[in-house]
Amino acid sequence: MRNLILSAAFAGLSLLGLNAQAENIEAGRQYEELSNPVPVSQPGKIEVVELFWYGCPHCYQFEPTLNPWIKTLPADVNFVRIPALFGGIWDVHGQLFITLESMGVEQRVHDAVFNAIHNEKRKLATAEEMAEFLAAHGIDKSKFLSTFNSFAVKGQMAKAKKLAVAYQISGVPVLIVGGKYRFDIRSSGGPQETLQVADFLIQKERSAN
């Protein structure tokens, strides 16, 4: 009985803590509301978009916090990664991500790509270098190169560039919820706080629907 009472007390305190956090989350402080909402990719679901770059150290450092959270998302939330394409090596790495996604192997090697750039100091600046690296992870070189240079991948890159403009982003990593709300680690106050803002906005969208 005593354990049950303590459990209920702790649950109540946790709920109060969450409510207190929510009360402190405001538009214009932790997040910005877009003046022109962007349509989501799966109507009927609450979309969370992360714009990132494989070469970004902040994106790499965010991964250990972000990835476990993604696994806990309920069925009505659709998480999407989009590469930020600001030209040069950003576009090259973005093309790599879109290629891996098109091949259905992105989840298999996503962490390995980040690790190669940030820990192994590989530049992965050419398709050939990427193909050699990925071959060691079981990705067929010829298939990768043909997909990398395909019209479909280039079409997805053009779409990603348009979305970045529509989201009005100027850096990464940045999250967008529901095509309406933009925020990042700096505005939120840290990696964990960023996910608290995301949870708040997901619930806001859920309540609105």
TrEMBL record:
One of its GO terms (cellular component) is periplasmic space. Pfam families: DSBA. PROSITE patterns: THIOREDOXIN_1 (PS00194), THIOREDOXIN_2 (PS51352). Coiled coil: none annotated. Disulfide bonds join C56-C59. The keyword Signal applies. It is found in: Periplasm. This is Thiol:disulfide interchange protein. The gene is dsbA.
